[in-house]
Amino acid sequence: MKMPALSLSHRSCLVACLCALSLGNAWAEKADRNKSMNAESDSLRYDEVKQTSVFTGNVIITKGTLVLRADRVEVRQDNEGFQFGTAASTGGKRAFFRQKRDSGDEWIEGEAESIVYDGKADTVTFRGNANMRRLRGSTVTDETQGALITFDNTSEVFNVSGGATSSSGGGAPSGRVRAVLSPKAAASSPAANTPPATLRPSTTLGGEKK
């Protein structure tokens, strides 16, 4: 049975119970895969035959630590059960993605004209005026900017391409990639096996004895 399109005058909160709305292998935090997905939008169209759900209008999707915001988000599921999501924004705005990494208080977030998640390959692609950041807590440690950024969650490798390839011409300045990469904190050096210095009273002042 085909689910009719929903057009809502007010933003509605939609708790997704359909398999097509479960992002399966989460983008980073493994615990997210077992969390319920919540979607908030102005409208939703679900096609059971094609296994697609299209959210439009001020879309906010959350799933555990995962947050995705855009003007339009389409989620589909293939015959093997893998999920794929495409988020896009218009009018000079960019879609936004954020999720916690498994390693401590570390996060990945970014913006682009479109963001594509491939559940089978476990990758996230930021396309068009793209920017991606790695944070430890609230501190940005790494930041990259380009026309196309692909992040592989399995290998934790990201590739960045420059050039103005977006519809609005938004790429890296002068068609080149920009990146700021901070070094990891070095391990503390072991304390030397020497006794601490001690202070001794002096009987001289200015080299002369009192």
Question: How does this model look, in words?
Answer:
This protein has about 210 residues and is an all-beta fold. It has a single domain, classed as Lipopolysaccharide (LPS) transport protein A like domain (lipopolysaccharide transport protein A fold, Sandwich), CATH 2.60.450. It has no helices and 14 strands. The protein has a six-stranded antiparallel beta barrel with strand order 4-5-8-9-7-6. It has a two-stranded antiparallel ribbon with strand order 13-14. Strand 2 (about 35-45) and strand 3 form a beta hairpin. The relative contact order is 0.11.
Structural class: mainly beta
Q: What is the distance, rounded to the nearest whole angstrom, between the alpha carbons of the first and last residues?
A: 104 Å
The CATH H-level superfamily is Lipopolysaccharide (LPS) transport protein A like domain
Order of strands in the sheet with the most strands? 4-5-8-9-7-6
Number of strands: 14
CATH class: Mainly Beta
- Please trace the helix and strand order, writing H or E for each element: EEEEEEEEEEEEEE
Task: Using the 3D structure, state the CATH architecture.
Answer: Sandwich
Q: How many structural domains?
A: 1
Strand fraction equals over 45%
Sheet with the most strands? 6 strands, antiparallel, barrel
Looking at the structure, the CATH topology is lipopolysaccharide transport protein A fold
- Apparent shape: globular
Mean pLDDT: 74
Give the number of helices: 0
Low-confidence stretches: 1-27, 187-192, 196-207
Please tell me how large the radius of gyration is. 25 Å
